[in-house]
Amino acid sequence: MVPFSFAGHDLHALRSGALFWPRRSALLVADLHFEKASWFAQRGQMLPPYDSLVTLEALEEVVAVTGASEIWCLGDSFHDDEGCDRLPAEAQARLRALTAATRWTWITGNHDSGMADRCGGALVDEAVVDGLVLRHEADPADPLPELSGHFHPKLRLRVRGQNVSRRCFIATPSKLILPAFGALTGGLDAQHPEIVRAVGKGAEALIPVQDRMLRFRLAA
């Protein structure tokens, strides 16, 4: 975990794309997209059906490592409204165990805005926690400091003749976009105009590496 400051709050970024908030013992993740592969399978595009278990195992690991007692999922946690129902029995039981053992809140996203059964936990459209707005998609018009997801940002670089892509956080003084945590999510280039539109000028891509944070200034 790499500590850094955002809007006066001390946070820790994890290489997995999760964010830990020590003062609240809170873990934040975005865009899990549980059951994305089964959604595509229903439409004839067969993908390996293991994405939810891989994502769940990674989530269980960061909860254990951080000791978080409060979990915030920043939208698109399921790939569609029926995602919880399609989870394999073992995965659903493990997820329900997590939501029962912590103060778990699902924030709705564009993929799961109408979900009813969310495998436990509370469901909200957005929240304000200790002065930080938690929502799925960044609101360029909101001046309050904000944590969000939605864009699955990745920084793409050419290093020693090789193309390199890494999930990254996107930060300005008042906006922080988390990368997608899910195993089957892809990513949008950190320089994409939609990301720039969402956060404004002066943004940086942040990549936690071991005990330090790599910062890359993004073009306006």
Q: What features would you describe in this structure?
A:
The two termini are 29 Å apart. The chain contains five helices and 17 strands. The strands form three sheets. It has a seven-stranded mixed β-sheet, with helices on one face. With 220 residues, it is α/β, with parallel strands linked by helices. Helix 2 runs parallel beside helix 4. The mean pLDDT is 90.
Characteristic key phrases:
220 residues, alpha/beta, seven-stranded mixed beta sheet, 5 helices, 21% helix, globular
Count of beta strands: 17
Rg over C-alpha atoms, rounded to the nearest angstrom:
17 Å
Profile the largest sheet. 7 strands, mixed
Order of helices and strands: EEEEHHEHHEEEEEEEEEEHEE
Which strand order do you get reading across the main beta sheet?
A: 1-2-3-4-5-6-7
Assembly form of the protein? single chain
Strand content: 25-35%
